[in-house]
Amino acid sequence: MDELKEVMITNDEIRTDEYLINMGPQHPSTHGVLRLLVQLEGEIVHNVQPHIGYIHSGIEKMAESLSYPQLGHLTDRMDYLSAIQNTEAVALCVENALQVEVPERVKYIRTIMAELSRLASHQLWWCVMGMDMGALTTFFYGLRDREDILDIFEETCGARLTLNYNIPGGVMFDIHPNFQRDVKAFIQKFKTKLPEYERLLSGNVIFTERTKGVAYLTKEDAIAWGVTGPTARASGFACDLRKHRPYSAYDKVQFKEILSDVGDTYTRYQVRMAEMWESISIIEQLIDNIPEGDHAVKMKGVVKLPEGEFYQRVETARGEFGVFIVSDGKKNPYRVKFRSPGFSNLFAINHIAKGWKIADLVAIMSTFDLVIPDIDR
Amino acid sequence: MTNEALIAAITGIEAEANTLAGPQFVETTVPLAGFHAFMKKIKEDPALSFDYLICVTGVDRAETLQMVYHLESTTHKHLLVVKVHTADRTTPVVPSVADLWPTSEFHEREAYDLLGISFSNHPDLRRMFLDDNWGYPLRKDYKDDIHIVSR
Amino acid sequence: MAFNIYDFTTFTKSIHDGLSSQLSPTAVLAIEWTIVGLAYLLFVALFGLFLVYAERKVCAAFQQRLGPMRVGPWGLLQTIADFIKLLMKELITPKNADKFLYNLAPFIVIIVSFLVISVIPFAPGLVTFDFDIGIFFVTAVSSVGVIGILLAGWSSNNKYSLIGAMRSGAQIVSYELSVGLSLITMIILAGTMQISGIVEGQRDLWFIFKGHVPAVIAFFVFVIAGTAETNRGPFDLAEAESELTAGFHTEYSGIKFAFFFLAEYINLFIVAAMATTVFLGGWMPLHFGDFEGFNQIMDLIPGLFWFFFKVLAVMFLMMWFKWTFPRLRVDQILNLEWKYLLPINLFNILLMAAVVLFGLHF
């Protein structure tokens, strides 16, 4: 009996302990300087604690000493993949506060630019998603097509990444004479390349096996955790601001809000792929109908907002981006808050990654499409 | 729900709330004492059901600090801005709403980090971006001679 | 025998006879061992460098790039430059690493790779050992390599390394089975475990054609399991860059890292060479039964060329799926082995036994 007891005690002591690993701040799959403190038992994730602040640049503090037209430079550097939409939010917020009505042409240009930027962002997301799953070839396919969009940006805006194209009152420059031709050429080309994406990754057995049925996010959780963008729409949370609270020229185009009620990693992937088709359709509807007119309204030299609080929401490639400006009537804002989509999305990871494996955690982070400067600001 | 109905509903819940329809949203300023109960009611009341907390902002309002909550109802599609002032600047405490909207846990941590507003009943109140002995940079009396050059 | 002119037996025999006439048998043995050792070192170093270059070019072709182009013509000297860089890098040992095991691990891995190469016949007469249990030797020795990987992961005192090593351990131990069983399938057909005998048995027809259905199944199982054994994509869980930074060799630098790197490519070569030897006829030219003219033309191509042509073809296949497939997850990789490959393999052995028993092969 004693022997048996001894054996049982020994068996009790042979157990696996939880251990912690730091994923990041220098880690290939965190896409920046995000640090995840992951609690593991073997391969199974028990807890994920995001630690941020490695690239915190105090943008909200800096914004308090800058004038309103200068804000765009800062928002470009937050979510650098949605630079157009971020500056659009600031521009709309200031225009709204000043009761300025921008010309139709500006609205069309802004919408086309925003959709091009969304396409570029989703392309980069797709290639990085493949890379995180171990399919390294996707990276080059995605970047190849993104290059075309960046060339279009360069031609019209003069920059490729941090564009600062939308300014209060309009856009910085009128579109380049070649703009419409180039965009149409790109759309034609990309329509043949997008099925290639599907063939390379979406249909792959290993890919579907690894993503289908993995890491569910329910609609209720998505709302409670403030998850927005394609990530939340894959869970059935109808949060597309382009549809529900249209701004710029979104009320003039027909497009579907991609919704699904499954909410696993594979659906989050599929929603973004379908959104690329919708973006293409939006651009096609607008590109031939850009009205003639000015590319900006004349603003005062010094833009002063009336006293008050102004909030503007736009839909970026990762979700809802909000600008909250508290003005005391001076030329620089009293307080600016940027509600970045990545910030809210990031903290839902712990909730859904529990119980899945390290490899799944990497895939989940990919489908959340995190941009770290957007989170850290 | 129209703005008038919303204002009426809110006044029904919290009589002391100072509610008015702004140019964009219905805005209400709630006294600190009944703040958490008010938030709980507007979330759980089926006619209001503000289930989506969009944004949480801390603002330095000279004598006090202010928290601004942007809320949306995903069922009724109406919006509400709730504001609450702390009692003073020295020991600013606001009840946490992390038990109602999990996302606010992190937005509140951000406000704690940058403005020094502490939240009672917060599950995990730590600094988020900055060092533990750093000041509170978004307060207007914040001085940093090294990093901020004042003109 | 048309391919006698390409037979290396006379060449090696003449060296042996020349040395024997001058020196004592012990000295002859010592000199011959040195020559063989140096020849293998030279082969492994050069072929390893070539493989790294080839992989980069193949990968570039899949990814619509050019690959290395700057150092030397078409970047041919790039891998040599990289190797020199690796030689000159500082050797870093983590503070709390188990120093002895940490330094031992890369040697175990590379020695195992060298050992297995020694039984592979490159051309007629060009083989070091020709045991009568050659296949058994290959499977036995190649499974020792996992000890090196486990040691590397354990002694580095790094959690990423440890996870990588444990993944690799589970994976290699599992896939050993499939490699072994698919080779056994072919041994039933060949009737011998001696590698020269196996090659000789394919004089008329390669085993993959001779054994038709079961041989083709065994070939695919062998290539899948062999890829898993070498820790290459899509089975590169042990390294899994996006998950574990570099897995078991995270903490290695300089020449010690180069050993792991080289061993990976030698193992790739070994798997391809074993597939060639057992399924595709080794250095045997392509022969089809009665087509005398065709067979004689094929005989004109040297055995060494045949061998490397087939090895490179198998290697290209393995590179192809490394650069197109995503990585499997650890539970899927074990499921694949234990739930699919193993039953298929066991059934396949029965099938092959039936084929051989009833003489259904060609």
Brief account:
The complex is a heterotrimer of chains A (377), B (151) and C (362). Chain A is of the alpha+beta class.
What does this protein structure show overall?
The complex is a heterotrimer of chains A (377), B (151) and C (362). Chain A is of the alpha+beta class. Chain A has one domain (57-376): Cytochrome-c3 Hydrogenase, chain B (Orthogonal Bundle), CATH 1.10.645.10. Chain A has 16 helices and 8 strands. Chain A has helices spanning 2-13, 59-63, 71-76, 83-98, 104-132, 137-157, 179-202, 205-211, 219-224, 230-233, 241-244, 265-287, 341-346, 349-353, 358-368, 372-376; strands at residues 19-23, 35-41, 44-51, 166-167, 170-171, 308-316, 319-327, 335-339. In chain A, the strands form 3 sheets. A 3-stranded antiparallel β-sheet of chain A has the order 1-2-3. A 3-stranded antiparallel β-sheet of chain A has the order 6-7-8. Chain A has a two-stranded antiparallel ribbon with strand order 4-5. In chain A, a hairpin with a 7-residue loop joins strand 7 (319-327) and strand 8. In chain A, helix 5 runs antiparallel to helix 15 (358-368). Chain B is α/β, with parallel strands linked by helices. The longest helix of chain B has 12 residues, at 104-115. Chain B has helices at residues 3-13, 35-44, 104-115, and strands spanning 18-21, 26-30, 52-61, 64-72, 79-85, 93-95, 118-120. In chain B, the strands form 2 sheets. Chain B has a 5-stranded mixed β-sheet with strand order 1-2-5-4-3. In chain B, helix 3 (104-115) links the parallel strand 6 (93-95) and strand 7 (118-120). Chains in contact: A-B, A-C.
